[in-house]
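Researcher: Go.
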Amino acid sequence: MLQKTLSLYVHIPFCARKCNYCDFLSFNAEKELMDEYFDALKKEILKSAKDYRDRAVSTIFFGGGTPSFADEKRVCGLLQKIRDEFNVSTDAEISIEVNPASAMRDKLFSYREAGFNRLSIGCQSLNDDELKVLGRLHNSSLFYETYQNARAAGFNNINVDVMSALPGQSLGSYVDTLNKVLELRPEHISAYSLIIEEGTPFYDMDLDIPDEDTDRAMYHETKRILKEHGFHRYEISNYALGAEDDDTYECRHNKVYWQRGDYLGLGLGAASMVDNVRWSNTRDIGTYVKEPADAESSFDKIRENVEELNTKAQMEEFMFLGLRLVQGVSTEQFKENFGKDIAEVYGEVIDKYQKMGLLEYAGEGGKYLRLTDKGLDVSNTVMAEFLL
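Model: Structure:
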C-alpha cells in the first residue's frame, strides 16, 4: 500500500511594506514580535508533526508576506525543524518566495544550502515606472541581480512572476517585460492579470487601467510568446519549460491544491485540508504567538472555520479546481472518489458546454474532461456551472 502524502505550506506574514495591489495577510513588525512568531511557528510544527507521522511530505512551500524579508537563519531553521519532525521525502519539492528587494546573495546561498530547491521571484514587471506604481520596493536592476545570484547559488528550478493589465501599461511594455524574462530562461513563469481587490490602496485610486481589449491582447500574447519559447501551459496562469508531456518544472505544490490533495498550513492565517476536513489558522497574531507556546494545549484556539466537506462540496471542488488545469479532471478519479460516472452528476452541464465548444473529453476512452482553448478563455463562467 502506497504511503499517503502531505504538502506543507508555511506562512511568513512579514514584509517591509505592502504593495498597492496586495490583499494577502502581511504586515511589518518589530523584531520582538517576529521572534515570538518564529518561536510559535516552531511549536506548531512540533505539535502538528505528531498527527502526521505516517505521511510522506512531498512538497513544502514558504510563502507570505515576504519570506526573504525575515532573517535567513530563522527561515532555514524552520525548514530544518520540519525535516526533524516530519517525514520529508528525499525528492520533495521545497519552494520559497522571494522579493528582489530583500533576497540578498548570502540569503540565497543559505536557502540553497538549507535544502530549498525551488525559488519563486516576484518580478511583476521590468519597467521601473510600472514597479513604482505597484508600490514594489525593487527595480529591474535588483531583479536581474537576484536572478543571477540565484543561479550562482545553485537554483536550477526558478519561477518568475509577471503581471499584466497594470496601471498605465501598454501591450508593448508588457511584451517587453515578458521577452526580457524569457532571455533569462527560467524554468517556470506565472503570468497573472492584475485584479484590484477591495481593501487595497489601488481600490480607492483613480487608475489608468488598460481596457478590456488590451487586457485580452496581453493574455493571448502571453500564450503565443511562451509557447514559441518552449513553455507549455499547464494551468490557467502557469507555464513550465518543456513539452506538454514533461511535468518536470510544473509546480508540484500548487498542483496539490488544484487536484485536491492533502495539505497542512502552518502559521498565521494558513489554510489546511486533510482527509476532506478544511480549516484555517487564526489571523490574529496576538492569539497565534501565545497559543502554540503551550505544548500540551490543543489547536482549538488557533484553528478556525473547521468544516468537514460533504460529498456535494467535494464534487464541486474536484471540478472547479481541477478544470483550472489544462489537462482537466480525471473521469476515472471522479468515479473512484464518488462512486458515480462524471456524466451521471454533470451530464447536462457537460453537454451544454461541449456543444458550445468550451469543454471536451480527451485521452483514450475520454480519460479526461477539460476546457478547450476557447473554454480556458472564459474559464470562470464555465467552472461556476459545476457548483451543484
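Model: The longest helix spans residues 31-49.
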